[in-house]
Design brief:
Length: 167
């Protein structure tokens, strides 16, 4: 079943969306749930590089938390992507990323980066397909070692870097 584009819309997140975003992530294992405060920050401080996807009733069905890396201002770092189970597998997460990249204030973004654990198969597949969606090349390499997370038990993180084609 395909969800019609006119049944969802994308926009910058608003502070009032933080609670729905928090609950969406909470109900989407294996995603790591951040604090509610973090989602408030993403809906205010980082709204220009984040996005929500809503249905016609205003229910949040998807969210991307992103920010520009301060020492690489032309790079969008995607912190977290979450879509409701009812809309997964329909290419909407790629369209959410595209909606961020196509905003006038983001026209100077040349790269997308994200870190992913090796066991997160869906995210690894997603970032490879995102490069294909943008008809771009990508690279990946180890970024955070398991030891970097000590004393916590956490897998290493691989960084994906996608160079966007302009023009």
């Amino acid at each position: 079943m395909s969800i019609s584009e006119n049944l969802v819309h994308f926009r910058k997140p608003k502070k009032k969306d933080a609670y729905q975003i928090y609950n969406l992530v909470k109900n989407s294992p294996p995603l790591e749930l951040n604090t509610y405060y973090a989602y408030l920050l993403f809906t205010t401080h980082f709204r220009d590089t984040s996005v929500v996807m809503l249905n016609k009733d205003g229910r949040v069905l998807g969210f991307i938390a992103g920010y520009r890396i301060p020492c690489k201002i032309n790079t969008l770092f995607i912190w977290q992507i979450c879509t409701d189970k009812t809309v997964q597998g329909r290419g909407l997460a790629k369209k959410m990323v595209n909606s961020i990249i196509n905003r006038k204030e983001n026209k100077d973004i040349e790269f997308i980066e994200a870190t992913v654990t090796p066991s997160n198969i869906d995210s690894n597949i997603f970032f490879k397909s995102l490069a294909s969606f943008f008809k771009s090349e990508f690279s990946c390499m180890d970024y955070f070692k398991k030891e970097d997370f000590l004393p916590f038990d956490h897998e290493k993180e691989i960084i994906y870097r996608i160079k966007l084609k302009k023009g």
